[in-house]
Specification:
Oligomer: single chain
Number of helices: 18
Order of helices and strands: HHHHHHHHHHHHHHHHHH
CATH topology of the domain at 15-201: Growth Hormone, Chain: A
Radius of gyration: 24 Å
């Protein structure tokens, strides 16, 4: 740690104008990501393709960010953070223009590939530029604003994107992305100027190792449900002696990740510049912060998957209802991420982190017991608010710990590690909870229908219980209409469906509470200082 406890009075306070550019840069990326799901319906109609084909735009964006973010961090140090930041903001805006004018889905996919490559540089740039422009309490507040930007972008993208998509079409949604890029570029001229270091080497071999590892891990986890957790599903593109390609990709990604670490350590021993400085994870405190970040993002991704699944698929309600259901959580994260920095003077990261994970564990456990078929009940809203308080505090805290621990010259490496961790955690959180819920549902349905006195074996034989998934009551009735089920048997099946879905959701929330609990002890290894400060770039 460096300069911990520096007095606020000794720190020169800077204008918040530079932070406007950095804040809206985070909004730019988050809004683009959130706007893609909102635009899928319009793109399907416009391009006359399947929803899965349009969904490739989301996958391509995520893969580009995950695979290139570490390379982006090194390019920033070589070219200069302000210079490369302006360049990729322009290219991000160009990607939105490409979306607006795209005559086919291929152009849209190319646009999101360009956006992802641009974001791979913006992510580490945000950390590096905060390190160069702000210190002490201002630096902590600036980091908190990035967490708030992510939360508010999702809400605004849904409402603005939904409104524009309904009234005008999906293309004007990306006009907002262009406008955001213009704002970011204009305010970037208030950022402190820096000089690149042409002597910085770029380890191409390490970039290939980590890029391939991240792509394989992300594809593997994202496709666990559709390709099969172990045995290959018919939807899998191929199989290896009957084994699903998803776990094979995950295994290969882990091996390549270990190879990347070994290669990087070998370069350091040879006094050569590595792709990323692993010394930023040199102590147990920094590793605890990365683990905490992984858990935080994974829990958020899991909840963002679970609630829409239940509200839209199970209850058959609209995306607008989903946004309202998630509003208590999203708004609480937004407010808490900004306000938690006020507690840094009184409480250490260790205390805040431990307390926050206790909050998230308690909230998820509470939700598991009080949740029912109506998300608008007061106990459920209370649980989402408490969970949002814990999440909002942790999003800012763990990021701040990593930035504070690293010297300014390594701030881009911190940003790269942050981007890699968040992308992997998001993929893992969504995939694991999805696979878990479907597995629990399958076992529970099979047990319930077999034990129910009004469901005969002859009816069970007419239904495929090997591919059980979440369905609404109306969809279940349509399926049973194609069998010889009597009205009484249909009613019994619907009753089973409602009960099993709810119990599966409760089991899933309890599982997430358990994951949250695993981070409480590691959180006690977070730094025990109160005020924090990263060194001025001139000191390094």
């Amino acid at each position: 740690m460096t300069n911990i406890g520096a007095a606020a009075s000794d720190i020169e306070r800077r204008s918040w104008l530079p932070m406007v550019s950095l804040f809206f840069a985070q909004v730019l990326m988050s809004f683009n990501v959130a706007a893609l799901p909102v635009s899928i319906g319009g793109m399907v109609d416009d391009f006359d393709v399947a929803p899965t084909t349009v969904g490739t735009t989301i996958v391509v964006y995520g893969l580009a960010v995950a695979a290139l973010v570490m390379l982006g961090g090194k390019l920033g140090r070589r070219v200069g953070w302000v210079t490369i930041f302006r360049a990729v903001v322009i290219s991000f805006g160009a990607s939105a223009v490409l979306m607006i004018v795209s005559p086919s889905v291929g152009w849209a996919i190319a646009g999101q590939a360009l956006a992802g490559a641009s974001a791979a540089v913006i992510v580490p740039s945000l950390v590096a530029l905060i390190a160069e422009n702000y210190h002490g309490d201002q630096q902590a507040t600036a980091i908190g604003s990035l967490g708030s930007a992510r939360a508010i972008s999702g809400v605004s993208a849904f409402f603005l994107g939904g409104s524009l998509g309904t009234l005008v079409g999906w293309r004007p949604v990306f006009g907002i992305v262009v406008a955001l890029a213009v704002i970011v570029f204009a305010f970037s001229f208030t950022l402190r100027s820096d000089r690149g270091d042409r002597t910085v080497e770029i380890d191409v071999v390490a970039a290939i190792f980590i890029g391939a590892a991240i792509v394989l891990l992300t594809l593997g986890f994202n496709n666990l449900n559709s390709w099969g957790v172990f045995f290959a599903d018919p939807k899998a593109p191929f199989d290896l002696l009957g084994v699903s390609p998803a776990p094979v990709m995950i295994l290969a990604g882990l091996v390549l990740g270990q190879t990347f670490v070994l290669w990087t350590r070998q370069r350091v021993r040879a006094d050569r510049v590595p792709l990323v400085d692993l010394t930023v994870l040199g102590s147990s405190r920094e590793r605890a912060a990365v683990y905490a970040m992984f858990v935080v993002v994974a829990l958020e991704a899991a909840l963002n998957f679970t609630v829409p699944l239940y509200v839209q698929i199970v209850q058959g309600r609209t995306a607008f209802d989903t946004a309202l259901a998630m509003m208590p959580f999203n708004l609480t994260v937004f407010v808490t991420a900004m306000l938690v920095v006020r507690f840094y003077k009184r409480y250490s990261p260790r205390v805040i982190g431990t307390f926050s994970f206790v909050l998230t564990t308690t909230a998820l456990t509470w939700l598991a017991y009080v949740v029912n078929n109506n998300w608008e009940t007061l106990p459920t809203i209370l649980g989402l608010i408490v969970f949002g308080i814990g999440q909002g505090a942790l999003v800012t805290l763990v990021f701040n710990v990593l930035v504070t621990a690293a010297p300014t010259r390594a701030a881009g490496d911190v940003g790269s590690i942050r981007g890699t961790t968040q992308n992997l955690a998001s993929a893992v959180g969504t995939a694991v909870v999805g696979a878990l819920l479907v597995t629990i549902l399958g076992f529970t349905v099979a047990s319930a229908v077999t034990a129910h006195p009004r469901i005969p074996d002859s009816l069970i034989d007419q239904v495929d219980l090997d591919n059980v998934n979440f369905v609404s009551n109306d969809a279940l009735r349509e399926t049973l209409a194609r069998t010889d089920a009597s009205p009484e048997q249909v009613d019994a099946a619907v009753e089973i469906n409602e009960d099993v879905r709810l119990r599966t959701l409760q089991f899933g929330l309890l599982f997430l509470a358990g994951v949250s609990a695993t981070a409480i002890i590691p959180a006690t290894r977070l730094p025990n200082y109160r005020r924090n400060e990263i060194p001025d770039p001139s000191e390094i």
